[in-house]
UniProtKB/TrEMBL annotation:
Gene Ontology molecular function: any one: oxidoreductase activity, acting on paired donors, with incorporation or reduction of molecular oxygen
Protein name, UniProt field: Probable cytochrome P450 28c1
Any one Gene Ontology cellular component term annotated for this protein: endoplasmic reticulum membrane
Residues annotated for heme binding in this entry: C228
Organism: Drosophila lebanonensis (Fruit fly)
InterPro entries: Cyt_P450, Cyt_P450_CS, Cyt_P450_E_grp-I, Cyt_P450_sf, Insect_CytP450_Detox
The protein's required cofactors: heme
Amino acid sequence: NLAFVAAAALGGLCPQLLEHYRLKIFPNACEKFFTNLIGESIRLRRLVHMERNDFMNQLLELQKQHSLTDQQLVSHAMTFLIDGLDTSAATIAHCLLLLARNPDCQQQLLEELMSIDSSELPTYEELNEMSYLNACFNESLRIYPPGLWAAKICTKEYTFEGCRQSTPLRMRPGDTVMIPIYGLHHDPEFYPEPSLFRPGRFLPENGGVKKYRNMGVFLGFGDGPRQCLGLRLALVQSKAAIAAIVKRFEVRANPRTKPGIRLDPSIFVAMHEGGVWLDFVPRYQ
């Protein structure tokens, strides 16, 4: 609900409040579910002395090396599930919705997918070389950035001198800076007609995503040394899923999906209000 959104915003502006008032971003029911699920997984893994080449095994190895508590393991696992998987699932859904609403873009993406000399799904190398798929993905991140804002702590004194302010803005160590990611992504000065889905903005011949990153106005995964740790995983799994679906199905927007770009006000990440409802029509019967 809105209380969790307020807690997230306050935590970004004043991190001390979260600790002082013991505010939570996730509801108790969600926390309890994941704590029980992951705790039981850890218990069973230890009970049968099972070793697998997976994330849980990596956590247990880290526990031995760094003397982590079980609660810390649960926290790391929740971070992986929520930050790494939930945001990717939302990005995939939003990209498919935008493609469904723009059938010409979906057709162009299909043609790029079909141009690959393979009956199988694209390889990792092919995914990276597909310029239009990359453009569609980045345009979706622009319209629906997983993080609506980012909070940063100033570590050394810095002075901003810009043309839109009469006096320089002086930042001191410890000051909190809120970066309005959604506002930057929808600023018509940088993205003409920002509400429209235009993958062409991010094609190589137009400068690609690097152009907007260098301008500091594309922060789909954040930026700098504290950008998203799961960037590469998110890129691969999201683009692979979009490619697999578009190649096999024609994606159409279901009438249950609310029109326009409407964000759910009760969630602190970008999520289309009312959910994303799609119809999938097989391309080959």
